[in-house]
Automatic annotation (TrEMBL), chain A:
The keyword Lyase does not apply. Its main location: endoplasmic reticulum. Subunit of the oligosaccharyl transferase (OST) complex that catalyzes the initial transfer of a defined glycan (Glc(3)Man(9)GlcNAc(2) in eukaryotes) from the lipid carrier dolichol-pyrophosphate to an asparagine residue within an Asn-X-Ser/Thr consensus motif in nascent polypeptide chains, the first step in protein N-glycosylation. N-glycosylation occurs cotranslationally and the complex associates with the Sec61 complex at the channel-forming translocon complex that mediates protein translocation across the endoplasmic reticulum (ER). All subunits are required for a maximal enzyme activity. Keywords: Endoplasmic reticulum, Membrane, Signal, Transmembrane, Transmembrane helix. It is a single-pass type I membrane protein. Pathway: Protein modification; protein glycosylation. This is Dolichyl-diphosphooligosaccharide--protein glycosyltransferase subunit 1. The lineage of its organism: Eukaryota, Viridiplantae, Streptophyta, Embryophyta, Tracheophyta.
TrEMBL record, chain B:
Its cofactor is Mg(2+); Mn(2+). Component of the oligosaccharyltransferase (OST) complex. Residues 567-624 form the STT3/PglB/AglB core domain. The chain crosses the membrane at residues 49-69, 116-136, 148-168, 174-191, 203-236, 242-262, 269-289, 301-319, 331-357, 394-412, 419-435. This is dolichyl-diphosphooligosaccharide--protein glycotransferase. The keyword Secreted does not apply. It comes from Aegilops tauschii subsp. strangulata (Goatgrass). Its EC number is 2.4.99.18.
Length: 454, 743
């Protein structure tokens, strides 16, 4: 195939720099690749990057940009990234992603591609169970050298951990560490698919907030409101809590007790939200604060209890938004709702995200435009005074992180006459009731005339 | 039990909204321009109808709206304890359908016994709510069953006002009916059990009770089979909704007996009672929980006896008519009466002796004899709503009705009829029961409202007639009559200052009624509208502080314990744990098995190692206790502990109440008895409490409810470990450790 040819064609990585950010609950990797087309005669239109199978399973998002211009006038052009043809044979099950270059790379030309990707669930807590007074230690596994289908001439890996408490790390000389930073490399002249496993064992007390399931329901009403209801199934994904939970310790010694637990979360909502609520199956949860300004609204929520490792919590957030901020008319006369994808909770990972866009009754030919691959289907939902039901666009995606919070659009056709259907129904019902009353009062159904009524 | 947290005392006093004026319609008509007015002018009868309908409609809305304080103050949620069970079963009913509900064996309660829910509850409330929910769904209103449940009680309270109106009209006149509707709409005695969220049997049962009484009185007044049939169905609904139906099945025969004795026997009564009793009994048997009690239980025998008595009476009446000879009839009467009485006594005797007719239950005895429960059934006596009523609660719940009631009785006796005799009897008996048990104020409330309404209506009517007659014929005022006979003969002979006195009295009546309205609104908003799951208090800076510890703990249980975990707690919290925590409990508020409850009481009052054995035998995984020492929440487990000891000791004599007392005094400080300081309940409540400073200037381990420093600060737990404590320490959950490996 083309991709395989390109690899053989001899793209060469002149220098590679891999920066791994391990400070949070998710792993962020910045990759700077300086590549050269060493082939003779053939242009290269793709650059491939490789992931181990484990990494590929936990890969939430991959973004690539190409820097153009010099120094201060540097502009970054986003490049499309897609999984490479699965037929492409790669050793040990490595998975390839191909970055398409907008202008093919001519022979002997070089370019710099910057890749950013996010791995979720890649930090393994060890020990897997901790008590309230212990802090959380995690393993991170990667390779010291860059896994790449190309020859790599020079390469370095930089790892940043949240604190200087690094229990252990694999040495692949040259390796150095200063405080929270561990540096691997530089290594020269690595063969394609070279791999040199490393393990870092370090302290990470960040909130490992994992939303196992999030269902967001966006109901559009042409009477002026967009109602959002979000059902969360939250879990602390870190090291499991073991043994006693002492409220006394937790209250008296907050800094050292339950260091890896968290008790509040921040949700960033659109500006001008109204009627915000926060509840669960058994009622309202009274611990939340809403701050809003003209750019955004911030909802700080506290679950009913602090979440320790392995503890679960489910809740629902709902809010209304003004319609004019989100609904527009496109050039071809269709309406489109411009909504934000992803999860409004900051610093969380969503394992399964379902977005249901409930269009008004009577909408036709809906179409969702999402900038990345999702699973979509249509269904019908019923709400107040619905007769035929509302068309609902269901969008599903797995492994969603903050980088997925980008706008997406749902296009549909809608005739405003349908807006009047429900008020007219109510008017008719009231009218019929009065008519029935009048008829009842003016008819005499008795068989014999009453004697007394004279 | 209604906990009265210290926090409640500091609630803000919001000025109560006044009920809307009912007579707005007439003033509106007068303000219209003259020609239009002429075109729209209604006949007096129509005007009266319009006024009556609009007043009733306003009362209906008022009755519903006044019960929504709790939703506005807190949220749309279920209150208290029992309603949580009702809500859980309703949820089950809507999710699984009626036949599943009917056959439901609940293994989440009374572990390891379980509970046959379908056969041990009154399904009326749940079925009503489920039907309302289905109706709303059919009208494509996408409401959740919880909202239906929360608003069921206010909805039925509003319906009760309509029944009260009809009832009042039946026994007196439509004016009294309107006043009765208005009084019952805001009567605190009734509101206490029917605010939004108080999803309990009483919510619909009072409606059913009053409806049955109204229909029966109507049947007696008309002698119509149709009304008797309606009364039987009303009774059926009541049987399906609440155990208080026993009151009806005993009051009706008593009423019939009184009518017989006072010589007011009539064919109408015969038709009404027989039809209502026979059909009502047959229909009542269809409720599984009641079953054959109508023919087998001692509590229902009075109705049957009166039924037979009525037949004998009718028969004798007929024989008397046929014989037409006093002497012959008298000897016949003697023979028949002897036969009937001996047969009746024999049947009752054989029935009771053979066990076919069950004797009266303890609950029934405790109603007749207020001291019975205290001596024999501690589990009934331990519930605060089963305590004898204090005078202050009467005043609190009835306010001016308390002295309008005797006045109403006076009017009733003045104009005695079958209907007024009924309401008098209903009033007197229910007042007695209200005195025996606090919660039965509820049953008395409709009667008190109706009788008071008669007093109010009759008084105001008399006064207004006086004022009107005066203004119509002013010349009669100064007239003086010489002879006494003439003065007696003239009915409306005016007294000096009659007009002024009448106006003053009228104003006084309005003042009283408006005080009543203000009092009712205030009581509703301050006392009866807190859900008791969520506690609130005023913070230092005047803001409202919410203590949501119960739900915190229940939700923690629901989310973070194994789904088959068994929770041991005192029975008060059983329903809430199963409904909100969704976990299996050992005992709950359906206190059907005294031994099981006593076992839990025994575990709580034993030393830890003994308790551990009991808990192991019951497969307990978690123990939940409620502790108010940090917040000053007084209805916690330490304050309930003596009842646990008593109930436990009632079955297991190893538990002795004096062991926990010092010189008959219950204390938790250093002077407490050693058994008290080391029993499981004490340990679980005060575990690590000795390290906590609760109040500034007090030593650590200062219990804010008891107001003492605790006596045992060094508590070690061997078989249990702290699993969760809520943010204000109100609920503490401990995990039972698995048995140690044998070494």
């Amino acid at each position: 195939s083309q991709a395989a040819q390109a690899a053989e064609d001899g793209i060469r990585v002149l220098s590679a720099e891999k920066r791994i950010d391990l400070t949070g609950p998710i792993v962020k990797v910045f990759l700077t690749l300086k590549v050269q087309n060493t082939a003779t005669g053939a242009d290269a239109s793709h650059v491939l990057i490789a992931f181990t199978p484990a990494e590929a399973d936990h890969l939430a998002i991959v973004k690539a940009t190409r820097a153009e211009g010099k120094r201060k006038k540097k502009t970054y052009i986003p490049l499309p990234v897609s999984p490479a043809d699965p037929a492409t044979a790669a050793p040990n099950g490595a998975r390839l992603y191909s970055i398409s270059l907008p202008t093919p790379l001519k022979p002997t030309d070089t370019t710099t591609v910057e890749v950013f990707y996010v791995l979720t669930h890649s930090l393994e807590p060890f020990p897997a169970e901790i008590t309230q007074s212990e802090s959380q230690l995690v393993y991170y596994r990667d390779s010291a050298v860059l896994l790449s289908p190309y020859h790599v001439q020079e390469q370095g890996t930089y790892v940043k951990t949240p604190s200087s408490r690094v229990e252990s790390f694999t040495r692949v000389d040259p390796t150095s560490r200063s405080g929270p930073d561990v540096k691997y490399g530089a290594y020269g002249n690595q063969l394609p698919y070279a791999y040199s496993p490393i393990i870092l064992h370090y302290e990470n007390n960040h909130a490992f907030a994992v939303v196992e399931e999030l269902v967001r329901k966006v109901e559009i009403s042409h009477w002026g409101n967009v109602q959002v209801t979000e059902h969360y199934k939250l879990k602390h994904g870190g090291a499991k809590h073991k043994g006693v939970f002492s409220r006394l310790e937790y209250q008296a010694r907050q800094s050292i007790s339950g260091a890896s637990s968290f008790k509040n979360l921040l949700a960033r909502l659109p500006p001008r939200v109204h009627s915000v609520y926060y509840r669960d199956e058994i009622g309202n949860i009274s611990s939340s604060h809403l701050r809003s300004d003209s750019y955004k609204s911030e909802l700080e929520i506290e679950p009913r209890y602090p979440l320790f490792g392995g503890w679960h919590c489910t809740f629902t957030i709902g809010y209304g938004m003004p319609l004019q901020d989100f609904l527009f008319e496109s050039a071809d006369g269709r309406r489109f709702a411009n909504l934000t994808f992803g999860c409004p909770l900051l610093n969380t990972v969503v394992d399964n995200l379902t977005i249901k866009v409930v269009l008004p009754e009577g909408s036709k030919s809906p179409q969702a435009v999402v900038p990345f691959e999702t699973e979509q289907h249509l269904e019908t939902s019923y709400s107040y005074l619905d007769v035929v039901g509302r068309t609902t666009v269901v969008i599903k995606k797995k492994n969603v992180v903050g980088e997925h919070n980008v706008p997406f659009q749902v296009y549909y056709e809608f005739s405003p006459i349908f807006m009047l259907a429900e008020p007219l129904m109510l008017v008719t019902a009231v009218l019929l009731f009065f008519a029935a009353c009048i008829v009842y009062l003016h008819t005499d159904l008795s068989i014999a005339k009453s004697q007394a009524s004279s | 039990p209604r906990p009265a947290p210290r926090a409640d005392e500091t609630l803000a006093q919001i000025p109560p909204p006044r009920p809307p004026m009912a007579a707005a319609a007439s003033t509106m008509l007068e303000s219209l321009p003259a020609p239009l007015l002429r075109a729209l002018r209604l006949k007096t009868k129509q005007q009266e109808l319009l006024l009556r309908v609009s007043a009733l409609a306003l009362i209906y809305v008022l009755a519903f709206a006044v019960r929504l304080f709790s939703v506005l103050r807190y949220e749309s949620m279920i209150h208290e304890f029992d309603p949580y069970f009702n809500y859980r079963t309703t949820l089950y009913l809507t999710e699984h359908g009626y036949s599943e509900f009917w056959n439901w064996f609940d293994h989440e309660s009374w572990y390891p016994l379980g509970r046959v829910v379908g056969g041990t509850l009154f399904p009326g409330l749940m079925v009503t709510a489920a039907l309302l929910h289905r109706l709303l769904r059919a009208l494509s209103l996408a409401v959740h069953i919880r909202e239906v449940c929360v608003l069921t009680a206010p909805f039925f309270a509003a319906n009760t006002t309509l029944v009260a109106y009809a009832f009042g009209r039946e026994i007196w006149d439509s004016g009294a009916g309107l006043v009765a509707a208005a009084l019952i709409a805001v009567c605190p005695g009734y509101i206490s059990r029917s605010v939004a969220g108080s999803y309990d049997n009483e919510g619909v049962a009072i409606f059913a009770l009053l409806l049955t009484f109204y229909l029966f009185v109507r049947a007696v007044n008309t002698g119509s089979l149709a009304w008797s049939l309606a009364a039987a169905f009303g009774y059926f609904y009541m049987v399906s909704a609440w155990g208080g139906y026993v009151f009806i099945i005993n009051l009706l025969p008593l009423y019939v007996l009184v009518l017989l004795v006072t010589g007011r026997y009539s064919q109408r009564l015969y038709v009404a009672y027989n039809c209502t009793y026979v059909l009502g009994m047959l229909l009542g048997m269809q409720i599984r929980f009641v079953g054959f009690q109508h023919v087998q239980s001692g509590e229902h025998m009075a109705a049957m006896g009166v039924f037979f008595l009525l037949q004998v009476f009718f028969f004798l009446d007929w024989v008397k008519y046929m014989l037409n000879d006093v002497k012959l009839f008298k000897s016949f009467l003697r023979i028949t009466l002897t036969c009937v009485i001996s047969v009746g006594t024999l049947a009752l005797g054989i029935g009771t002796a053979s066990g076919y007719i069950s004797p009266w239950t303890g609950r029934f005895y405790s109603l007749l004899d207020p001291t019975y429960a205290k001596d024999h059934i501690p589990i009934i006596a331990s519930v605060s709503e089963h305590q004898p009523t204090a005078w202050s609660s009467f005043m609190f719940d009835f306010h001016i009705l308390l002295f309008l009631f005797p006045a109403g009785l006076y009017f009733c006796f003045k104009r005695l009829s079958d209907a007024t005799i009924f309401i008098v009897m209903y009033g007197l008996t229910s007042m007695y029961f209200a005195g025996v048990m606090v919660r039965l104020i509820l049953v008395a409330a409709p009667a008190v409202c109706l009788i008071s309404a008669i007093a109010v209506s009759a008084t105001i009517k008399n006064l207004t007639t006086l004022i009107r007659s005066k203004s119509k014929s002013p010349q009669t005022t100064g007239k003086t009559t010489g002879s006494k006979a003439a003065a007696k003969g003239a009915v409306d002979q005016p007294l000096p200052f009659q007009h002024n006195v009448a106006v003053a009295l009228l104003l006084g009546a309005f003042y009283l009624l408006s005080r009543y309205a203000i009092h009712c609104t205030w009581v509703t908003s301050e006392a009866y509208s807190s859900p008791s799951i969520v506690l609130s208090a005023r913070g230092h800076n005047g803001g409202r502080v919410i203590f949501d510890d119960y739900r915190e703990a229940y939700y923690w249980l629901r989310q973070n314990t194994p789904t088959d975990a068994k929770i041991m707690s005192w029975w008060d919290y059983g329903y809430q744990i199963t409904a909100m925590g969704n976990r299996t409990v050992i005992v709950d508020n359906n206190t059907w098995n005294n031994t099981h409850i006593a076992t839990v009481g025994r575990a709580m009052s034993s030393y830890e190692d003994e308790a551990y054995e009991i808990m192991q035998s019951l497969d307990v995984n978690y123990v939940l206790v409620v502790f108010g020492g940090v917040t000053g929440y007084s209805s916690d487990d330490i304050n309930k502990f003596l009842w646990m000891v008593r109930i436990g000791g009632g079955v297991f004599p190893v538990i002795k109440e004096p062991d926990y007392l010092v010189n008959g005094e219950y204390r938790v400080d250093k002077g407490a008895s050693p058994k008290m300081l080391n029993c499981l309940m004490y340990k679980l409540c005060y575990y690590r409490f000795g390290e906590l400073t609760t109040e500034y200037g007090k030593p650590p381990g200062y219990d804010r409810v008891r107001g003492v420093e605790i006596g045992n600060k060094d508590i070690k737990l061997e078989y249990l470990e702290e699993a969760f404590t809520t943010s204000n320490w109100i609920v503490r959950i401990y995990k039972v450790k698995p048995p140690k490996n044998r070494s």
